[in-house]
Structures are given as C-alpha cells and as structure tokens.
Sequence to fold (433 residues):
Amino acid sequence: MLKINYFCSLEKTRMRDLFERIKENKGPLGKWASQAEGYFVFPKLEGPISNRMSFRGKEVITWSINDYLGLANLPEIKAVDGAAALEHGAAYPMGARMMSGHTDFHEQLQNELAEFVEKEASYLLNFGYQGIMSTIDALVSKDDIIVYDLDAHACIIDGVRLHMGKRFTFKHNDMESLEKNLERATKMAELTGGGILVISEGVFGMRGEQGKLKEIVALKQKFNFRLLVDDAHGFGTLGKTGAGAGEEQGIQADIDVYFATFAKSMAGIGAFIAADKEIIDYLKYNLRSQMFAKSLPMIYVKGALKRLDMLRTQPELKANLWRNVNALQSGLKAQGFDIGTTTSCVTPVYLNGSIPEAMALVKDLRENHGIFCSIVVYPVIPKGLILLRLIPTATHIQEDIDLTLTAFSAIRERLENGTYKRLSAAVSAAMGE
Ligand SMILES: Cc1ncc(COP(=O)(O)O)c(C=O)c1O
Fold:
C-alpha cells in the first residue's frame, strides 16, 4: 500500500531544477534585498570605526559595533596585531590544530583564559560559531537529550541540529518550562540510558537579558544534567573581573562547559571553551570543526593574549563601558522608551511599526541625525515590532548619548504622527506589506 502511494506521488510530482525554488523565493530577509541592500543590510563601512565612523561620506555616531571595551583601535593593541602580522604573516600556523597548527602561544593563551574564567582548562576555537556547534556535537551521543532555551543563538540551534537524539526547548528564561522539560528529558534518559545537556546563554544578544543561570544551576539539586553556557556578550563585560555572566551571578563553578568568543569584548576573531581538564582533553580530540579546519592564526592568538592582559589589568575599560551603558539606558527610560528587560550592555529599544516604516525611520536617524544603529525586524522578532539595537562601548562620550536621546525623541514623534507611514507608502505597496 505504502509503495503504491509512493509511486503515485512520484508520478504526480514534477521534478524541477534545484535553483528554481531559490530564484522564486529569496527567503524572509532576502526578499527585501532590492530595497535594503547597501544601506540597511550590507552597509559599506569606511575608515576607522569607533564611537564615530564615516557612513556614505558623513560622520555618524555608531551604536552597532560589539567592541564593548573599546580595544579595537587602541594603539597598543594595533601594535601587537601589527607586530604579529609582520613576524608570522596571516597564515601561520598553516594546519589544523592537531596536526600542524599548535604553538606555545596557543597553549599559553589557553592556560591564561582557563585561569581567567576559573576553569581547569580551556581550548581555542578558530571561530565561535563552528566551535560551539562542534562542542554540542561532541558532548552528546544519540542516547543523550538536549534541553535548550527557545531564544538560543543560531550557532546553538545549528549545533543542536547535528544531534541524532532527542531535544527539547524550554520557553525563554522560563524556569517552570525548563523544569517541565527536564522532567520529560529525565524520563527519556532513563529509557535510553543517556544523560542531559542544558544549554543557555550568559546574555541573550537581541534583548540583552542575562540567562537565568543561577536558577538553572539550582535545578541541579533536583535533576541530573550538565550545563553549557554561551557567554559571547558576557565575557569581558559582566562580573567583578569581567569573567562573565557566571561570575556576575556567582555560579561560575557550576557551569560545566563555558564558551565565549573573541568577536565581542576582545575585539578580535576566535573563541574558546573552558571546563574541567578531563572534559577539555576529550573535546580537543573530538571537535570536528577544529580537527578538520585550520587553527586560529597567530595574529589572533598573540592579539588575544594582549587583549586578555588589558582586560585583567585595566578595570577602567569595563568601568567606562558601564558608565555609558547606565547613562544611555537610564536616559532612554527617563524619556519613556521601552528598553525591555535588559540586564546587560545590549540596549534594545522597542517601537511599533511595519518594516517599511522601520526603514524610513532608520534612514531619518542616519541621514538627519547622524545616528547609526542596527535595526531588527520580523522574522527575527514578531511582526509589527521594530527593535533598534544599541551597543554602548567604552569609547562613547556623553555627547554621543545626548545627541542620540534627542534623535530618538524626534523619530518616535514622527513614527507616532504617521510621517514614516506616508514616506514608506510606496515601498509598502510594492512589497505587499
Ligand atoms: C551568542 C553568540 N554566540 C556565538 C557567536 C559566534 O561567535 P563567532 O563570531 O566567534 O563565530 C555569536 C556571534 O558572534 C554570538 O552572538
């Protein structure tokens, strides 16, 4: 019976060229390319980028660079990066870590990172995205169960996609939902004979909320699981020493596998995982994205050593960052803006409007107020919501904040009085929005 249906459906189906669908449907974001590319997405950056940058020949205040501590342009950082480039070129070491991509400097950086985040050992990753995917892949077998936050970053979702066994999501930062799913996962694990991996983030990068790590860890009293935390936005910005969200919440020791990238407060490229030595020893022989891809180049290794040293020895960098975070967030709140429930440097501003209105609004911000920030719309967030995402850094000055607050008041007024609706009417009609 099944066989007949199978052949019937084959008969009915017209096979087509693979690219036909791609040409017809460019995807939820791709469909905006003709309206957005080069301006809203893939804007071309020019010259040095700090609290200010040049955009289409005009100076703008920049709120969309993850250089939290303002390290990227410091002369002492550039000197180390430059010296490493001169000595080693961009390629060194040429091979994958295991075969021909390992040096004393890689090892030194791992030791220093492990000490900084209070773990026994750490292992470098050439990119965070692939690195955490492989970490998830290596930590679980088909009998194990993954339970992860519904708002997890794409790299976690992609890592979970590699998993051959069961997975459950829990509602974002919702401990009741986590508990329910841990109960289901525990029942399942009792059948399969596997274990449970819970995955959350130190800071959720869109809304800026810290993961409820303390509450998650408390559930270890009731359930048997291991915790992996992606602390991309927490590392360098949270905690007394800058060791991240675990330190901030006082539960760093209970994070079983800690992940952070160099792409944010370290103003570089690369990432690392940190855990007990036995776990790192296992991971370094089982992370496919590291075993079969090139090692982190020396420029980034030596650069990261310098950056880590500055993180440790110059607490004023983090103090300057937080001075700006607090001034910006309290200024926005005082003006009645909805900045959601952020508990980190990530500063979202929520407004109501369509995608075409959001485009008109951001154009106004950039062209008439000299403010450059990221815009997030559906399908990343619910339809009808506009999220302007501001990333304060240590390099911003009070004038940047004051000008931004004035500009935000002006654009809110125009959004509410329908100016952007009128300006974007043609785009709305063309896009059927
Ligand atoms: C939460 C989170 N995890 C992982 C990554 C990926 O890190 P990388 O840029 O090092 O690949 C990012 C983005 O940078 C991120 O925001």
Notes: The pocket of pyridoxal-5'-phosphate is lined by residues 127-129, 132, 153, 155, 201, 205, 230, 232, 261, 263, 271 (CB under 6 Å). Residues 82 and 299 are 8 Å apart (CA to CA). The chain has two domains: 27-62+316-431, 75-313.
